[in-house]
Write a structure and sequence with these properties.
Length: 418
């Protein structure tokens, strides 16, 4: 992944304004309770460009008229840190993992002085001070300020001449196209997910509650080498499956119902995202099989549509239209517009470092993109919810189903449960 990070920085430099400084913060573990923090996870753009998985670091990219320079600022080890928290990464290791020359790796206490030097007309590191400051300005919602604005607040206040821009415009584009190193991590994450679902299939008839199967999945993927869940597992039995983001997972298992799983594993910070729907007692009823096979048919047909040049709008229109026709054929709806009562989400999303990964949905698909395809039908009144989701790589002339080895046909699933 070091080579990937080096290449990613080179591609980003090509897109940045000349006369700019870019700051990316690795972040830290958010506060949880009086004496605990949540587990740390790196800011994704920082990791994408550095291959570093450590808190309290700053990546600085300088693009001048005639030079491009990368600096990294890290924590300095102290006796207290070593004894109480464990030694921080040394400069040599940070250089080995990131590909940033060791001479360009400094301690955090040096950051303010170096930034001031960058802004100084007499001795700027860039020849002339930068005019643009790029920050990671991802907005979770309208009420939440991007963390980078807080981190860089003193810089913004002290250097009002800097024009603040979002680096996300560029990283969101670059991250749509997965390198071979990234694809290797995604394949491993999908492999962990396969192990987890196999464990669920072998245990499903002997479990009593949704949370037990959720635990089976987490146990299996971590034993297999995953860092854990890519997102909160959905284990939704019966009518719970009609709730798209059901994560309570506390209800008992109705042996006559199906259970919908939407889950994924992490590997090297890259995610998988798979949905499967299984019969709790090991055999689909006639009605369950009818609904399941409609969703499976749409899943497979939509995947066949994937190739460079195809748009997200086409995939959404194709899958929704096909679901509507099939639902009308079995009498579930009278008018195709009524499909929105039983299918109320889009066909998929980009996937990578984030489960719902960044990217531009108004652009046609191109080689190297990874996306999910996840049609569904949700009939709460019948206690039926079906979603089937696969992870797909767009290739030069079509697609590769990265999750093709995870069973989804009725016969195989029933056989595995039996």
């Amino acid at each position: 992944m070091k080579e990937h990070a080096i290449s990613a920085r080179e591609k980003l430099f090509e897109r940045l304004d000349t006369g700019s400084v870019t700051l990316l913060y690795s972040g830290d573990a958010p506060h949880k309770s009086m004496d605990q923090s949540y587990p740390y996870t790196p800011q994704r753009n920082f990791f994408y460009l550095s291959n570093l998985n450590e808190p309290n670091m700053i990546l600085m990219l300088l693009k001048g008229e005639d030079s491009e320079q990368t600096f990294l600022f890290i924590e300095e080890n102290t006796d207290h840190i070593i004894k109480w928290e464990g030694a921080r990464m040394e400069k040599s290791e940070a250089s080995d993992r990131s590909g940033i020359p060791e001479k360009n790796i400094r301690y955090l206490k040096e950051f303010d002085g170096m930034f001031n030097r960058t802004m100084n007309y007499a001795r700027s590191l860039m020849g002339r001070p930068p005019k643009v400051l790029y920050l990671d300005l991802y907005h979770k919602d309208a009420q939440t300020k991007p963390a980078s604005l807080e981190k860089a607040s003193s810089i913004i206040e002290n250097y009002p001449e800097l024009d603040i821009k979002s680096v996300n415009e560029h990283t969101s584009y670059l991250r749509m196209f997965k390198s071979e190193a990234e694809l290797a991590e995604i394949r491993k994450a999908i492999g962990h997910t396969k192990k987890g679902l196999e464990t669920i299939l072998s245990n499903i008839k002997n479990r009593e509650y949704e949370y037990q199967l959720e635990a089976d999945f987490l146990h299996a993927i971590t034993l297999d080498g995953s860092e854990g869940n890519a997102f909160d597992t959905i284990a939704a039995c019966g009518e719970n499956a009609a709730v798209l983001h059901y994560t309570l997972n506390r209800d008992s298992l109705d042996k006559k119902s199906m259970i919908l799983f939407d889950l994924g594993a992490l590997h090297g910070n890259y995610a998988s995202d798979i949905s499967r729907t299984f019969p709790v007692n090991g055999k689909y009823s006639k009605r369950q099989k009818q609904i399941y096979e409609i969703v499976l048919k749409v899943n497979e047909a939509t995947i066949e549509e994937i190739k460079p040049g195809v748009t997200w709008k086409h995939l959404n229109d194709f899958s929704r239209g096909m679901l509507a026709k099939e639902a009308k054929n079995i009498g579930l709806i009278d008018d195709e517009k009524e499909i929105l009562n039983f299918y109320y989400h889009s066909i998929g999303h980009f996937m990578g470092l984030d489960v719902h990964d960044v990217g531009y949905y108004d652009l046609p698909l191109e080689e190297g993109m990874v996306l999910t395809i996840e049609p569904g039908l949700y009939i709460k009144e019948e206690g039926i919810g079906v979603r089937i989701e696969d992870d797909i790589l767009v290739t030069a002339d079509g697609y590769e189903n990265l999750s093709k080895d995870i069973p989804k046909d009725v016969k195989t699933i029933e056989k595995l449960i039996k």
